[in-house]
Amino acid sequence: MIDRLLEGNHTFLERDFARHHEYFQTLARGQNPKVLWIGCSDSRVNPERVTWSKAGELFVQRNIGNIIPVHDWNVATVLEYAINHLKVTDIVICGHSDCGAMKALDKESTDVYIPLWLSNAQEAKTRVDTKIPPGDVPERAKERKRMLEQENVRLQLEHLRKYPLVKNAIKEGKISLHGLYYNLEDGSLTRLE
């Protein structure tokens, strides 16, 4: 597999890097993205590809379930760098269909770390449970899954707003927050309200 990745890099160098050499040289001197994209680690959801963005346009943070734990050092450092140093103007949290993290949230697990991490999304499950209880009618299982994926994005936006740095940047009109949802089946990206 590593040989395939190195071969892919060779193709990139020939087809893209060489063709856009000046652009990549500009990127080598620094980055200036306007969007911080917080998404899921799922290999099927490549933010640059699904938004047709070029290298350097998105500052990306990915983790299992696009989760923003309240008071997490990793998230805090990404936010601090993105807001204070890169001066991003928009922060996106993007969830997606067929999310394994949300499937795991909705069932018992013998894993050690995954359930601990997913506890940061538990409130989304609680909210969805009031609308479509687990094990309701089988016909509503797909609807429940989608609701959980989307409610998790909304919850993580709430968590994001609890960071003082984000709260102040919003108050000062420096950044805007956005919830997006990517549908793997049709490739569409939609806003969540």
List keywords for this structure.
alpha/beta; 2 domains; 193 residues; Beta-carbonic Anhydrase, Chain A
Task: Please outline the helices and strands.
Blueprint: H1 2-17, H2 21-28, E1 35-40, H3 47-50, E2 58-63, H4 73-85, E3 90-96, H5 100-105, H6 113-118, H7 122-131, H8 141-161, H9 164-171, E4 176-182, E5 189-192
Parallel strand pairs: 1-2, 1-3, 3-4
Antiparallel strand pairs: 4-5
Provide a short characterization of the protein structure.
This protein has 193 residues and is α/β, with parallel strands linked by helices. The protein has two domains: 1-30, no CATH class; 31-192, Beta-carbonic Anhydrase, Chain A (3-Layer(aba) Sandwich).
Write down the CATH class of the largest domain.
Alpha Beta
* Structural class by SSE content: alpha/beta
Helices and strands, in N-to-C order?
Answer: HHEHEHEHHHHHEE
Overall outline: globular
Architecture of the largest domain, according to CATH? 3-Layer(aba) Sandwich
In total, how many domains does the architecture comprise? 2
Q: Specify Rg, calculated over alpha carbons.
A: 18 Å
What does this structure look like?
It is globular, with a radius of gyration of 18 Å. The chain is built from 9 helices and 5 strands; from the N terminus they run ααβαβαβαααααββ. It has helices spanning about 1-15, 20-30, 45-50, 75-85, 100-105, 115-120, 120-130, 140-160, 165-170, and strands at about 35-40, 60-65, 90-95, 175-180, 190. The chain folds into 2 domains: about 1-30, no CATH class; about 30-190, Beta-carbonic Anhydrase, Chain A, CATH 3.40.1050. A 5-stranded mixed beta sheet has the order 2-1-3-4-5. The chain has about 190 residues and is an alpha/beta fold. Helix 7 crosses helix 8.
